[in-house]
Amino acid sequence: SFYLSDSRPWPWAYRAMAPPPGPLRDCSPRGESCARTLCAALADTGLKPEVLHVVGASEAELSMDFEALSQVLPPGARIVLIGPHAMGAERGACAPREEKLVGPFKCRGLQVSVFPHTYQRFLTVCHTAETPQLAVLFHPGLDIHYFAWYLCLKLWADSRTPVLITAYRRPENTGETPQVVKTLLETLVGVGSGAGMWVIEEENPHTIEEGSFNAAYFVTLGCQGALPVLAEEMYFALYQALLKLGYPFAPRVGYLDVGSESELVMATNPRLMAAVAEGAVRAAKVGEDGCDEETAAEFAMCVLDSVMGNGAGIAWRASDYTRSACKNCGDGYDDLAWHRTICPAMGLLELNTGDEVRLANLTRQEFNGREGVLGEFNSAKQRWVVNMGGRDALFKAANLEKMPAKK
Q1: For residues 304 and 283, what is the distance between their CA atoms, to the nearest angstrom?
Q2: pTM of the full predicted structure?
Q3: In Å, what is the CA distance from 127 to each residue of 120, 150, 157, 215?
Q4: What interhelical angle do 178-189 and 235-243 show, nearest 10?
Q5: Using DSSP, how many helices (H) and how many strands (E) does the chain show?
Q6: Do the strands 78-82 and 51-55 form a parallel or antiparallel pair, or are they unpaired?
Q7: End-to-end CA distance of the chain
Q8: How do the residues of the chain divide into helix, strand and coil, expressed in percent and rounded to 5?
Q9: Cβ–Cβ under 8 Å, residues 278 and 330
Q10: N or C: which end of the chain has fewer CB within 10 A?
Q11: How far is CA 353 from CA 300, 401, 402, in A?
Q12: Cα 78 to Cα 81: distance, rounded to the nearest angstrom
């Protein structure tokens, strides 16, 4: 099959093609690797999705071989490329781009749209968008951005949306290697009985850059059991599973994808240490068996030492750096504008205790239009408390419309 050939050019590579429309780019080696990997995964699963969400999209996804994809997808299939870097937002940007769906653009018989923002904002802003029949994440960094990705993974697992995820193998065999990604996914969603891990391809024939880019791919479908609401509730299971591989699980809390690459990875970066420590502390304190603050801090020090070297934990405790915390969801952040892109308490507009709101976008139409007043944001449930006529109920931020202030 054309999508399983790794050594020969594809037949259409020689055709004269019109330039891709809108923000889409000419096919690049990375874009071709992504397209071939996606085609292979579709062949493995037999899926023919009419709606695909490619999440965390950037240059590689914008430059995919859409002609190749048109050969395996239904005519007119809708592809939405979603990600803050999908239209040029670079690291260090002071704020994400406008929350607007761009397109669709007709490309090789497909309908391709771009949403240059996070998936969390896409779900809120584009609430009428079609439900994906396949979600695609090319080397998303689940290990370090676990807290930011978790609610997306839970959403797809709960709705049994198939998810394609690839791995990235660095020359020193660090980072989100195939074994790390496989273990992380198996721990989260399980294996067997028609749910959890569906496809495991630890040696992707369509990898490039000496086997690093798209080194492996995996497809998940649902979950063996319901995932808990909070990411920290799965932290220790992941920590222990990856520890067996000799891999230090130390995900960051918050959107830390701003600033220079060298600054982000520096062991002495106080922002990075605080973001990692916050995740460990939350994991240690969560649930009925959670420990006290001091014990949680000691665990965070161990995590920091394991990933940044001996002394990192002590350096964190000695640092006078204090993260700002969201007044609603409680998460720490380094940049408020970027935090709002993933904050579960954000509606279409910023919501705060005391705001008058109207219910909207609910499946049960009879509730839409009802009005109430916001209480506190319930972090444990990831929902707002809404008082309606003396009774409290919980609703997601995406189902709340902020009403204009009364004059």
Answers
A1: 14
A2: 0.90
A3: 11, 19, 19, 34
A4: 140
A5: 12, 15
A6: parallel
A7: 66
A8: 30, 20, 50
A9: no
A10: C
A11: 32, 13, 11
A12: 10
| Residue 111 identity (one-letter amino acid) | Q
| Burial 128-148, CB ≥16 within 10 A → b, else e | ebeebbbbbbbbbbbbbbbbb
CA 257, 263, 267, 269: dihedral to nearest 10 degrees? -80
Q: Are 331 and 382 in contact (CB under 8 A)?
A: no
Write out the DSSP string of 297-337: HHHHHHHHHHHH-TTHHHHHHH-----EE-TTT--EES-HH
* Closest among 218, 219, 137 to 178, alpha carbons compared: 218
Distance (Å, whole) CA 277 – CA 298: 10
Rounded (10°) CA dihedral 189, 232, 288, 292: 150
At residue 269, the pLDDT reads 84
DSSP string, 82-108: E-TTTTTPPTT-SS------EEEEEET
List, for residues 330-366, the tens digit of each pLDDT value. Answer: 999 988 988 999 999 999 999 999 999 999 989 888 9
**Residue among 246, 58, 263, 206 at smallest CA distance from 141:** 58
Residue 75, C-beta contacts closer than 8 angstroms, at least 6 positions apart = 109
298/313 Cα distance (integer angstroms): 8
Comparing C-alpha atoms, which of 180, 58, 31 is closest to residue 117? Answer: 58
> Which phi and psi angles does 389 have, rounded to 5°?
65, 35
> Average pLDDT for residues 380-390, to the nearest whole number?
94
Count Cβ atoms within 10 A of the Cβ of residue 70 and give its class: 0-12 exposed, 13-18 middle, 19 or more buried.
middle
Chain centroid to Cα 85, Å, comes to 13
Please state at what angle helix 270-285 crosses helix 235-243, rounded to 10 degrees: 110
Query: How many Cβ atoms from other residues are within 10 Å of residue 205's Cβ?
Result: 13
Beta strands in 88-179 (DSSP E): 102-107, 110-115, 134-137, 163-167
pLDDT 10s digits, 35-78: 999 999 999 999 999 999 999 999 999 999 999 999 999 999 99
- Is residue 184 pLDDT above 50, yes or no? yes
Contact 269, 256 (CB under 8 A): no
